[in-house]
Design goal:
The structure is a single chain. By secondary structure, this protein is an alpha+beta fold. It has three domains: 82 residues, Rossmann fold; 140 residues, D-amino Acid Aminotransferase, Chain A, domain 1; 69 residues, 2-Layer Sandwich (Dna Ligase, domain 1), CATH 3.30.1490.20. The chain contains twelve helices and 14 strands. Strands 9, 10, 11, 12, 13 and 14 form a six-stranded antiparallel β-sheet that branches. It is globular, with a radius of gyration of 19 Å. The chain starts with a strand and ends with a helix.
C-alpha cells in the first residue's frame, strides 16, 4: 500500500475536467488498496502536502500550474515523487510554440506556423506582417493560444477579415498566440506509456467539423475508434512519430501526442503533445490502454509505479 496524494482541480480554465480526472483516479487507487488523499490544489498546497506526507503525488492537474512544470518543480523541492513528465518536459509540452519549434528542429512534420506575444503586436507592429503570414499559411488559418489545452480558445479564420477577432479571442487566454496552417484530415491520438506506444485512437465529432472542448468532454458528442481504422503503414508511422516526439520533448511516465492524417496525400503531421492527458470517461489515454489490454485500474497502478523525483 502506498500513500498517494491526488492533485486535482486548481485554478486553470480546465478545473472541471481536472476534478473529473482526479476523482476517477482516486476511485481507482482506492480500489487498488492504496491510502489515497485527494487535494483540490490551492494556496495551501504545500501545507496540505506536509500534513499528509504522501509517498507519491498523482498529478491530475490540467492547464496552468499542472501541465507547465509549476507543480512538478514544487514537488521536487519538497522531495515528493510524482507521476508524469519532469519539469523541463512539461514546460516544453505546455507551450505549443516551444513544442513546435523543437519538433521542427528535429524534422518532425508539424503544420507551418508563426507565433507572437502581445508585445510584438503592441510594440513591434506585428499586425502589419499579417498579410505576409496569411499568404504563407493560406486560409483557413488556425489561431490558438500557446498555453491552453482541451482546444480552449482555438478559432478558425476562413479569411483575412476573421484574423483580428481570432487573435483577440486567443489573447484572452494568454499572452502568446500561434497562427498555424490548417490541416484538413482525421484527428488521431497516440498515447505512450513508459515508451510503450499504445493503439491509435481516432476522434470523430458527430456534429462539429472540429474536435472542440465540448466534443472532448461531453459524452455522446464524439465517436471514438480504437484501434483507428487506418492502413497498417499509417498506423506504424503515427506510432513512430509519437515516439519521436516523446523523445524530443523528454517525456516520462505517460503522454499523448495528437496528429492529423490527410488521406488525400497520406501525410501525417503532429499538432502537439500533452504531458498530463485526461483521465475522464471520454479521455483518449485510458481508451488506448484498454484497447491494449490494460484496464483503467491497472493503467493507474502502472503510472504510480513509474512515479519519480
Amino acid at each position: 500500500m502506498t500513500r498517494v496524494a491526488v492533485l486535482k482541480g486548481g485554478r486553470s480554465l480546465e478545473r472541471q475536467v481536472s476534478l473529473k480526472s482526479g476523482a476517477r483516479v482516486q476511485d481507482a487507487l482506492e480500489r487498488l488498496g492504496h491510502d489515497v488523499i485527494g487535494i483540490d490544489v490551492g494556496h495551501d498546497l504545500v501545507t496540505r502536502l506536509r500534513e499528509v506526507a504522501p509517498e507519491v503525488a498523482f498529478v491530475a492537474l490540467h492547464g496552468r500550474d499542472g501541465e507547465d512544470g509549476t507543480v512538478q518543480e514544487l514537488l521536487e523541492a519538497l522531495g515528493i515523487a510524482y507521476t508524469g513528465s519532469g519539469v523541463s518536459a512539461c514546460i516544453r509540452c505546455a507551450d505549443k510554440v516551444i513544442a513546435k519549434h523543437h519538433m521542427r528542429d528535429a524534422a518532425i512534420p508539424t503544420p507551418d506556423f508563426f507565433a507572437f506575444n502581445e508585445t510584438a503586436f503592441k510594440e513591434l507592429g506585428a499586425a502589419d506582417a499579417l498579410p505576409a503570414i496569411e499568404e504563407r499559411l493560406g486560409f483557413p488559418i488556425v489561431v490558438k493560444p500557446a498555453g491552453q489545452g482541451s482546444a480552449l480558445g482555438i478559432k478558425f479564420a476562413a479569411a483575412a477579415k476573421d484574423v483580428p477577432g481570432a487573435l483577440v479571442a486567443a489573447f484572452s487566454y494568454g499572452d502568446k498566440v500561434l497562427l498555424e496552417r490548417h490541416v484538413d484530415g482525421r484527428d488521431l491520438a497516440v498515447s505512450v506509456l513508459d515508451r510503450e506506444v499504445l493503439p491509435v485512437v481516432e476522434a470523430v465529432p458527430r456534429e462539429e467539423n472540429f474536435y472542440d472542448f465540448e466534443s472532448r468532454y461531453e459524452i455522446g458528442r464524439t465517436d471514438f475508434v480504437c484501434p483507428a481504422e487506418l492502413p497498417e503503414e499509417i498506423t506504424e508511422r503515427a506510432q513512430e512519430l509519437a515516439l519521436e516526439v516523446w523523445d524530443v520533448l523528454g517525456c516520462r511516465g505517460f503522454a499523448r501526442i495528437d496528429l492529423m492524417y490527410c488521406e488525400g496525400d497520406g501525410e501525417l503531421t503532429v499538432l502537439e503533445a500533452n504531458a498530463i492527458p485526461g483521465m475522464t470517461e471520454t479521455s483518449l489515454l485510458p481508451m488506448a490502454a484498454d484497447a491494449a489490454g490494460l484496464d483503467f485500474d491497472r493503467l493507474i497502478e502502472r503510472i504510480v509505479d513509474l512515479a519519480h523525483l
